[in-house]
Structures are given as structure tokens and as C-alpha cells.
């Protein structure tokens, strides 16, 4: 993932970085199981090489908005960090802001009112533009959704916010062809109306776009 954030095309090689070294496969029977209660510092593992990963540090701020607060874990292809949205305040998984870093603009930048506060109507309207109408199961989950959608899922909050004429495909401007389609599928796997349908961190690490 680091190379995707550093270069326009994911198959490019980052200048100055050494090539990845393949290590021989060892039988799983030679490993011992560690107790779940024992914390592990991944950077002390034998094959960990910091030069293979983007040099994120606690306190770093990206796009003048997202501040790194915690390292969540280290895997074969990336390190997952937790960041704080300095404008909107809730903590967001670092992978959810891949779009903002990769594209150089906020996917949900136009969701604030004239005073800079979060506007739930504009937020939902933008979600409809990106994902289409929500499923019926989503409708009764908050008072705001009941004010925005009819029973058939049609947008009814026209006075509060209009559905913008935008889509994920039109917003994405750096890629083309199958590479673009794969990236959009990756983003859609995180942008789901129902949280339980969103891919887990483990599933995201196995996504074809990251592994290509």
C-alpha cells in the first residue's frame, strides 16, 4: 500500500528503496503459538524492514486534516494506523482515508454547513450520489434517515440538500481501465450503507487492488 500512496501507479518502484527479498517458506510446524494476552512489538520481528513501509509517525498530520494517533497493527503488506479527523473529530481507520491521500482531495469534503459544522443531510445526499438509494433495513436506524427517505428509499429532503451530480467513477481521475475499476471496487467494499456489510481489515488486506 505504501507504494500506492507514494507513486501515481501502484506497480512503480519507489526510488531509493531496496527490492523486496523473498524468504524461504518454512513449515508451520516449526512455529510456536504465542498467547493472545502477550503484546508484540512488530518492529522487532526478524524480517521487519522499515524501508519497505511509508514512514508514518505518531502525531503526523496528512492533508492538513488527519492526525495519526495509534498504530493498530502490522501485516505482510501494510501497517494500519488510527487517525483523528481534525475537522470532524471522530477517529477514523487510516485505511478509510486512502481515497483522500491517493486522490489528493476529500471524498466527503462537501458535507459542512455555512458555519463549518457537519450537515447530516448533505452527508447522506452525497452517500446517495456515491452508493445509490439505501436498503430498507437502513431506513429506521436514525431520525435523520426518516426525514431524508420515503418508504421506497427515494430521497425526499430536497429543501435540506440536493443529490449532487457526482459519482465515485467521476471523482476518480488518476487511474483508467481495469486498474480504475479495481480501485473503485476496493473503495465500495468500505463504503456500504450497512456497517456489517463492510469488509474487515483482514479482508481489505487481501483485496486484489492492494495485492496487484
UniProtKB/TrEMBL annotation:
Catalytic EC class: transferase
Matching SUPFAM superfamilies: Protein kinase-like (PK-like) (SSF56112)
The reaction(s) this protein catalyses: L-seryl-[protein] + ATP = O-phospho-L-seryl-[protein] + ADP + H(+); L-threonyl-[protein] + ATP = O-phospho-L-threonyl-[protein] + ADP + H(+)
Family matches, as InterPro entries: Kinase-like_dom_sf, SRPK
Keyword Transferase: yes
Keyword Cell membrane set for record: no
EC identifiers of the protein: 2.7.11.1
Keywords: ATP-binding, Kinase, Nucleotide-binding, Serine/threonine-protein kinase, Transferase
Chain segments annotated as coiled-coil in the UniProt record: none
GO biological process: regulation of mRNA processing; spliceosomal complex assembly
GO function term, MF aspect, one: ATP binding
PANTHER family on file: PROTEIN KINASE DOMAIN-CONTAINING PROTEIN-RELATED (PTHR47634:SF9)
Name of this chain's protein: non-specific serine/threonine protein kinase
Species this chain originates from: Aspergillus homomorphus (strain CBS 101889)
Amino acid at each position: 500500500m505504501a507504494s500506492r500512496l507514494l507513486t501515481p501507479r501502484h506497480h512503480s518502484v519507489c526510488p531509493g528503496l531496496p527490492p523486496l527479498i523473498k524468504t524461504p517458506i518454512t513449515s508451520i510446524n516449526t512455529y510456536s503459538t504465542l498467547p493472545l494476552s502477550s503484546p508484540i512489538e512488530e518492529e522487532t520481528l526478524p524480517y521487519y524492514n522499515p524501508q519497505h513501509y511509508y514512514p508514518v509517525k505518531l502525531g503526523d498530520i496528512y492533508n492538513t486534516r488527519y492526525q495519526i494517533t495509534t498504530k493498530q497493527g502490522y501485516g505482510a503488506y501494510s501497517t494500519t494506523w488510527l487517525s483523528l479527523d481534525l475537522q470532524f473529530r471522530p477517529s477514523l481507520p487510516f485505511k478509510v482515508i486512502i481515497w483522500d491521500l491517493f486522490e489528493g482531495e476529500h471524498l466527503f469534503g462537501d458535507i459542512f454547513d455555512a458555519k463549518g459544522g457537519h450537515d447530516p443531510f448533505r452527508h447522506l445526499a452525497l452517500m446517495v450520489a456515491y452508493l445509490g438509494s439505501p436498503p430498507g433495513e437502513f431506513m429506521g436506524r436514525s431520525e435523520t434517515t426518516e426525514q431524508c427517505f420515503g418508504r421506497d428509499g427515494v430521497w425526499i429532503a430536497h429543501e435540506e440538500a440536493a443529490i449532487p451530480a457526482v459519482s465515485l467513477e467521476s471523482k476518480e481521475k488518476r487511474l483508467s481501465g481495469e486498474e480504475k475499476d479495481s480501485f473503485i471496487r476496493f473503495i465500495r467494499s468500505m463504503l456500504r450503507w450497512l456497517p456489517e456489510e463492510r469488509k474487515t481489515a483482514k479482508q481489505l488486506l487481501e483485496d486484489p487492488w492492494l495485492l496487484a
